[in-house]
Amino acid sequence: MTHDIRETAPPNEPENNWRQYFKFNTDHKAIAVQYMVTAFIFFLVGGLLAMLIRAELITPALNVVDRPLYNGLFTLHGTIMIFLWIIPFNAGISNYLVPLMIGAQDMAFPLLNAISFWMIPPGGILLISSFLLPNGTAQSGWWSYPPISLQIPPGQPINGECLWIVSLVIIGISSIMGAVNFVTTIFWMRAPGMSFFRMPVFVWSALSAQLLQLINLPALTGALILLLLDLNFGTQFFKPLENGDPIIYQHLFWFYSHPAVYIMALPAFGIFAEVLPAFSRNPLFGYRSLAVASLGIALVSIFVWVHHMFTSATPSWMRILFMFTSMLVAVPTGVKAFGWTATIWKSKLHLETPMLFAMGGAAMFLLGGVTGVMLAAVPFDIHVHNTYFVVGHFHYIVFNTITMAIFAAIYFWFPKITGRMYAEGWGKLHFWLTFIGANLTFFPMLSLGLQGMVRRISSYDPQYQDGNVISSLGAFLLGVSTLPFIANMVGSWLYGQRAVNNPWHATGLEWTTTSPPPRNNFAEIPVVKRPPYDYGNPKYSVIEPTESDEQRRREIWER
Questions:
Q1: Residue 218: count of CB within 10 angstroms of its CB
Q2: Residues with Cβ < 8 Å from 467, sequence gap 6 or more?
Q3: For residue 43, what are the contacts with CB-CB under 8 A and spacing of at least 6?
Q4: pTM, rounded to two decimals
Q5: pLDDT digits 0-9 by tens, 146-190
Q6: Contact, 514 vs 9, CB < 8 A?
Q7: What Cα–Cα distance (Å) separates residue 531 from each residue in 4, 45, 344, 523, 548?
Q8: 3-state DSSP helix/strand/coil % of the chain, to nearest 5
Q9: In 136-258, which residue ranges form alpha helices assigned H by DSSP?
Q10: Could you tell me the sign of the dihedral formed by the alpha carbons of 25, 31, 37, 42, in that order?
């Protein structure tokens, strides 16, 4: 018996109750929406801070905000966008999709899942509330290097830096608990027949990212606790004038914070692997290679952190070693880029909004990746160290690739999550405003960096003004681009056309259930008999229950 995943949902299928998203809930789908909406609110806050930064940088002189406030703006902008936007949103979309994609009823630990989310809002509010302190927010950048981060006037135990540390420790503990949940779910909650090489690449990407969280995040959390002790309790771990070593902090910070780039990017790569085959109607090229490449990226990324410290009194042998490992990451990431390209090669593309965002993000990843290999080379890295070239490269990864992938995911799975279709015209308007604005904002930064413009400054030499004007106008366009997106999402969720179970005719297991899915995801535990990305096969179903599987299915359902 097979099930046609194109059939519509039953007319009496209950709508999602919006109140469930505002209370403590252990359903992974409700928690996922809570994650994603909360992260997007923080994205708007971080974006407003970025627009203030770019408003200051339109002119060479300091004329919008004072320097302490400017330092606070770029400190919280970076912190919010990484720790309160991309990482929590990826946790949210993974929360929604992973159980559905592997045929599970929920995450392994539903209560822990809910607790993991409810640590995010207090941590974020605590961070932003530091703007209300008399001495202002943290001003030492999102990396918070000592001794700069320890230069707090005496008699101010409650200060912006203290709140910054406490909020990141809270968010970090939340991520560690979430990682335990994801890894356990993927290893032990798969449906009958769902072998590792029948899992979608998105699940491989989520698994790889969460393994990195488990391995690397405790180093940052421990470093932040030691920094807090130095700041408020008189210890001397990182104080250079009192036999402390600030370089140790850099090692602990980057041991997590460079793999964090891949923790953010791996789910984006998984999104590309789901969207590109669906809208090119081709099987994913080199599925097994792309799946294993996710683990390869995670493994190599553990050994690259020192390339952030080539100018931090790093010995020559260490520079050479980490230059090699940093360039080695290009191999598994290149495998992924080749697989995406081969998937859409000579196919008839269906350029709906998810496909536009996926193709745009994948294309801009090439520029972000090439500039990353350039920065892995010691001589070039020293030349452009602390310039806007690094800012441009980083944002081509975190915005032009990862955030574009996030938007692709939102549009692609919006019908499944809400049971409604979005407005395609508004979606395409959102894409073009975002694509043009992103390149106008970040491409000039590469040129400015090569010319020598230093980052983290609020005033600069007038020779750099033209590039900064273009970059700032692009940033304002990015701000405007969110307006049609918000209108589209809210209006479509409330009044959009009712979605069928599988509007894209995709082959993933999540498309075999109703839109939105019921509390236990599936009417019965599916039994997987076919590989993923089975496009071109006249049968659309990826599940084929058989009589011999009834015993195991019943056991899983009861459990």
A1: 16
A2: 444, 445, 447, 448, 451, 453
A3: 80, 81, 85, 89
A4: 0.92
A5: 999 999 877 778 899 999 999 999 999 999 999 999 999 999 999
A6: yes
A7: 16, 42, 19, 21, 20
A8: 70, 0, 30
A9: 160-188, 201-232, 246-257
A10: positive
